[in-house]
Design goal:
Mean pLDDT of chain A: 92
Largest interface: A-B, 54 and 58 residues
Oligomer: homopentamer
Low-confidence stretches of chain A: none
Largest sheet of chain A: none
Order of helices and strands of chain A: HHHHHHHHH
Shape of chain A: elongated
Helix content of chain A: over 70%
Structural class of chain A: mainly alpha
């Protein structure tokens, strides 16, 4: 579970509602079914129209992945590649056949399988890069869905506010209802701006960042398999793959391998 | 027929009107010929001025394709390419001559014909890539038309609202008409914002997504023909082309070929 | 003459004024010299400050080209290249010397002359690509001028409105003049938003689209000359150049050559 | 002196003030020290925070260059390169040693010196391209400074207006002061929007356009030196370098060289 | 300490508050806990939701680096590389082993170590470029965090204002409280717009500019090591690395080396 995501969404919505309460506002006055219908219905409709039907479910998955996701960890991956490189130099690349079942990421397994099967590096590279693009396209659609929703929500919120104002203005003869009417009209704006900025746009970015983190691990896996296939020395492979790690991860990696090697 | 598109557009416009009705609004007060004339006329005029005349009809086709379109399916295409590869290895590439009539996509047929005619891979690749760009340019124009319309509509709507407000303000001496006048002025904004966000911008994105989906199938076809021409083994071709499929499609492909092979 | 451009601009401005009249507005109340002075003067001044002096006249030419322009037609160009290819294969590339006078586009003539003069393909390609970039830079400046104008106009319009409102607000003691003053202030907004969305931005896009259409013809010409120089067979050249045409143009080309060949 | 820049800035600000006067506005009411303090101080502070300290002075230089700048002229440069090419073919590249003092642009002189010193073309190209990037980075910073200022000014203007409105609203019990207060608050908006659109953004664009024009001359110089080093014929060099000139410049060049050759 | 950053932030916020005071505003009326809770809490929450948890601390580090940072200086780096090149030509590259401890930047040390260990230039280049990308990704996250905060703050500020207005409008029956209520509602806008434009966005840009300045030094280091490995003459290396310096830095470098050589 991604606690950062939970804390973030609870914090932003919670503090805003709390502040509103402290200033004397009534949360009930912000609960308005029709405004919700306009903003959520209009935004969802525009997104369903915009996206291919087979991508809609993916965007729900994307939203879930903001809170729950199986993250690829680069450190054990590098350690495993280094092990494989040692073994391949000692016993030949065919010896890795038995190791394939220990590989968790199917992308890594497929690349390794192709190397063991003796495919040319060029074919392997091309195929795995297409594979990576396909995976990234999926994440891209999830990201774009929430970005699009974050774009539509505020304008639909304004649409709702203008519709409310038209209703208020057309009945201007009773000024005592003016304030209440305007207040109601503004609720749609609150929903639209809030939905976009506290939910949709952060979702879109989180999905993109997660996809990029996974893409780096896949790059490490692909690079590792290609270097094993080339028969490069395992310590050079380790050095080259470690350059994908930031300082904190590098230190963690060194601590882990030192312990593992002890 | 693309049911997602129908559901999306009906849902967004329907729910907004429903919510407006529930709040006591009158749909009649939103029907205003002059506002429609301003928003639709102004937006259409700006787009007609902006786009080359021979592209205007294309954009109408693009709008139709949002609801009705013949989608290219990658799975039978890959299966067909694998069949062709087997046959070409057995009987030579000339044997594919008889298969050309079974090829539905003219792009695929043209690439295959060039391979059978013995053109160099470089010429084939260059020609077919130009062909792909030409097709993508057409889709791009359709997309840009609706994007442009989605950009003009809200500003033209604001133009309409300001024109209405000028009219109202110039007659401020009769305050009883103020509210009604402002309400009327706002209807142009509703039309502009609604047209842009519930119709034009989603249309533009859908056209782009559809074009991209077709482009991937064309990439598979071109890659396939080039690999057949190179004389690559059919199971490697299959593996390489399958990397264009996402997980769901891959499973479907495997299920289909398993059934087909049974 | 580009009738689409004429229809577009007349349609957008005409329909908006018509709708305004139908709603009871007076066109006279929209004619306001000071607002025009602010919006047109301010926008023109900002553009003159922004653009190199030798590009200002070019932007006027660009505006004229929106309505009147000599468009390059790809179909006769391809037909001509195919003729040249046939002749060059029969009689040698020097035989094209006599044909140069029949070439209308100076870009095409220059490329052909370089090929006849026996320059290396690499030098020819480099020189003509620089030439293309130079032409595209000119069109780009025209486009950017109108885009910039379209960016400044609405903000200058708002500036005019705020100046008007300041004037109105400072004299708030006579409320009877309030409405009229606000109305007048808003006219600058109408001018700014209208100028940008009904004139400047569509101009910019049209100029860009026209430049791109011409660029494709130039690409065909350059590609054609290079293929002639390589001594490629004329039917392959035809096939390769036809891939630049969209479906409608392709059919037209085939109809024309069929008729021409009869 | 760049007269276009002077005319542009005088025209936009002058005409707007003139129109304001014609409508009965008082220029004194637009002179407001506190609004100026907010807009200029806030914008300058944000820019100083944003930019590296050693780039601040460069942006002042950039602003000066909008009005006064020594522009590189491509035509004499090409003529000089052609002369050098002739001489290098006749007397060897070392003969250009004596010509270096006649070269005004230090960039050109450095490239020529490296060619005379017999450095490899690859090293020469790499070094001079880095040099070009360094120069372009400087211009880029100047441009970005004014672009950033143009981005901050209107929002700081709005900040000033909102601060003014808060002050007005808190003292609503005396309605006679309402109008004047709002008018004063709006002056900050006028300053912000005007500063951005009539000064900062046009400055940024002009700096960019000027830098691009100089970059093209530097490209001509670098290309010329490389062609001289290769020992290419001077008339081919001339033809190749002329492709960087637009039509007007080309005609001017031909007129000048015809006169020079007479 | 980066004095420019301190001056910038003190100047913008200070002058705005001063001007507000001069106009008769009370700073107390701008201190509003609930508005601060909404803007800071909402913005922070959205950012925490958006960014991977392990990047949040990095963004705090980024903010600190705006005021305090250890900047890489290109001039001593170039001088050191030139020294290394001389020594490597005289005594062989292994002689640099003893110099590694004098190298401060770990990136430079790693590149040098790889060259001494005799790794192939291609492997060295690839590894160090990945290393650079990893460092740039870290800076990019810091930059994007503040950019995102600068994007959310104003909209959350508007959200706060609308919530305040809803509260005011719902209690319109007591008009004497209207002004104060609106004033309070506007404070959230001031916080949002100010936070974004005077803090977050300038932070983001400064972080980016600093990262780019460091990246240039790393490019110099990498280029230098590769040229030493190639065995290039030290004066050519010096010339080539100096092309990364702008005019001011070049003069400073020449002054320093002249003094050093004396």
């Amino acid at each position: 579970m991604d606690f950062g995501s939970v804390i973030g969404i609870v914090m932003s919505i919670g503090l805003i509602l709390l502040a509103n309460k402290m200033e004397g506002g009534h949360i009930e006055s912000l609960l308005l079914g029709t405004a919700a219908l306009i903003v959520f219905g209009g935004t969802a409709g525009a997104c369903i129209l915009q996206f291919p039907t087979n991508r809609i479910m993916g965007s729900v998955k994307g939203a879930i992945s903001v809170f729950f996701r199986k993250k690829l960890d680069p450190n054990p991956t590098i350690a495993q590649i280094v092990e494989f490189a040692k073994r391949a130099r000692r016993e030949g690349i065919l010896a890795l056949e038995k190791e394939i079942d220990n590989v968790k990421d199917p992308f890594f397994a497929k690349a390794l399988r192709m190397a063991i099967d003796g495919l040319e590096p060029k074919t392997l590279l091309e195929t795995m890069e297409t594979e990576m693009e396909t995976v990234e396209t999926e994440a891209d659609f999830q990201m774009k869905f929430w970005e699009a929703a974050g774009g539509y929500a505020p304008t639909v919120g304004i649409l709702g506010a203008v519709l409310g104002l038209i209703h208020v203005m057309a009945n201007l003869n009773d000024p005592s209802k003016l304030g209440g009417g305007i207040a109601t009209a503004f609720v749609a704006t609150v929903y639209g701006v809030g939905l976009a900025n506290l939910v949709c746009l952060p979702f879109a970015s989180k999905i993109k960042f997660n996809a990029k983190a996974d893409a780096i691990v896949r790059e490490i896996e692909l690079k590792g398999v290609l270097l094993i296939q080339e028969g490069v020395n395992h310590s050079i492979i380790e050095e080259q793959l470690k350059s994908y790690l930031d300082d904190k991860m590098k230190k963690k990696y060194e601590a882990q391998t030192a312990k593992g090697g002890a």
